[in-house]
Amino acid sequence: MSTRLGDRLDAARQRGFVGRRRELAAFHDLLDPASATQVLLVHGAGGVGKTALLHRYAWLANRAERTVVWLDGHELTGLDDLQVEATDGLVLLVDTVERVPGLERWLRRELLPRLPADAAVVIAGRDRPEPVWRADPGWRELVRVIPLGNLDHEDGTRLLAARGVPEEEREAALEFTRGHPLALALVADVSAQRRFSAGSAHEVMGELLRGFVETVPSPLHRRALEACAQVLATTEPLLEALLDLDDASDLFSWLRGLSIVEYGSRGLFPHDLARDALVAELGWRDPDGCEEIRRRAAAYYRQQFAEPSRHSVLLDFVYLHRATSVLGSFVVGYPQTSSLSADRPTRAELGTIVSWVRKHEGDESARLCERWLARHEPTVIRGQDGTAAGFYLLIDAVPDPEDPATRDLEPGHTRMVRFWMDGRRYQEPSPVQLFMTTQLFRSYLTGDCPDRTLLTFASAEPWAEGCAHVDFHRLPSADFTVGDHTFAVFAHDWREVPPLTWVARLAERDALIEPAPVDRRTLDEEQFGEAVRAALRAYGRADGLRDSPLLGALNLREHELRALFEEVAAQLAASPRDLKAHRALHHTFLRPARTQADAATLLGLPTTTYRRHLALAEARFTELLWQRTH
Predict the structure, then answer these.
(1) Its pTM surpasses 0.90
(2) Are 53 and 124 in contact (CB under 8 A)?
(3) Tens digits of per-residue pLDDT, 224-233?
(4) What angle do CA 2, 4, 6 make, to 5 degrees?
């Protein structure tokens, strides 16, 4: 038995270490004298397990009888007195390199070139390695970049089990943490005291936020990060709209360099847990600010719908309302789709597709799939590593006596999504499933538009509400049975609702800021006046008019009603006899003072006179609004 505390500490660390097979294989390769790689550059978000991985590397290096030198950015005060003895067989491990300004550059330029030829180096930090590592012809041959992500389901389960989390709590914990190691550890700490639940998740979120964002340069940078967390993907023009800035290029560059922010073809987005933590914290700390960001985002997206080439922002719009839209559960995993791509299949992948269909739908469906694959090319969804992760097969549906799905189709140009699935999760909501949906949306809006599009599902129940929301309606007469399973069919008729109209309807439906239309006749003049007075008192809140009966009575959206109020107020201001009324209205409702007493002071009026002016202002404003709209 060891007598050293350090040995017991190492043993405890090794017992708690799980997964990271790819990263461990990279380190074994690093220690191989025949390997070309001599430097591993590990980067990842705070709490993702970089330090734990380096401890594992140190343990492996010691077992290989290599000399280990550990440099921790938390403990270094600068570069002046930094000394590393260049011994043979050296393994240099540098943790939190971003904590010391200029350390990464100093290592690359000064220290590493002086090390022995058999030295192995690992540099870990939150930020992506500087581009020069890959641009320099010399370093490019010697380095390997390793992005460190979350644990997969199996390893996350093992970690929770090792931490003593009861089996019945593990699935909820994995769903909440998405495999983030620090989050898993925090969940385990909570579970040791009481059963983990959605309520205790707030405690974990707070700790994660402090770990993710230790310091930011300014309040404006913090606002930029919070805004980025609210929307699906952030572009530079969108960031300018969210923050009401003319130029957000510096802030956008800062966001892109953060370890908790990823970027894809459509913009920047935070890691899922970072996003959750930021949204949750802003939601209780500054709910009005949170609502203002969403209001500005919604306005920006609506402008994009005017451009036919920008219909892809539909999902961004839905994501903005993910907490209330029926499509919310289908878009939450969208950031994970940035690593997916759509492609033509290889010959080998055609066999993979048939095997997926056989696994999830049976032999008869697999036979029919082979038959259709001989006539139509499927679309394969690939993961980041290029392997097939799912597929869909869109066919021009003509009656085929062999396939019950097309046997009784009505005449006309009909296109059918005959097969679609995530290879592993079949038709469950997943990033692969969502990516397929976006691809299909594009197919509806571009190219040759059919009379109808049909979607097939293994079960109608999970999809009925979502399909109805996007105007794909249940078509029981088209249901079909293959083997011992009956498939449900949903349809959209493009002759009745063409693509551009369809997009506009979806945009309005998911805005969720206007109430249901109200028959104008339900508001007589007295009711109209009451609604105007209520709307004036709610005008100063970001969403104050969302429930106003005036929206339905006047057939207006909220922003249109606000614009109408401003026009009537301007009409008051332009009239000499109404100027006093306008000033009272302006300082009380439109650009309100803190209190009515403060408004009276601004106007230089006694309280009783101010109230008389205000009553006249409300009456005159209502009169003018009634005249303009009736």
Answers:
(1) no
(2) yes
(3) 999 998 888 8
(4) 115
